[in-house]
User: Fold this.
Amino acid sequence: MIDFFVLCGKNEQLYGKLKNSGRANIVPLRYIKCKDEMNKLYDQIDGIITKPGGVTISESLYKRKPIFIYHALPGQEVINLHQLKKLGLVYELNYWKRQTQPMDEFIYALYRNKSQWMEDHHQSISLYHQQLSTIGPVDFIEKVIFEK
Assistant:
């Protein structure tokens, strides 16, 4: 069984509904403002189900977590989704509302069966990390301003 940690943010209605659902594998979490707490949460998880926004995607990529996209809003999120799929960095959960197999079983099977997508994802995420800058923002600014 998969445990779901659901970031409810400040949505108290969602938090209450999940808290009272009686499902032990669903853990609703209120807004987390502490960076260290969020970091610990990212370290605990095996993957993330999200929309293709900015911060969550960036954190998940940095932490090398498999990313499952369930929906993208028109505009920037659709653009992000196309680029992330092209790079092999996300799995789009197409038509999840119409699936006959529960989503948790489907995702669990991807992990359990060491699916081709998981293997490809590990390679894609490694390539992605190779392209990241090794210099931090402060060092970059100092280099640009003071070294000519």
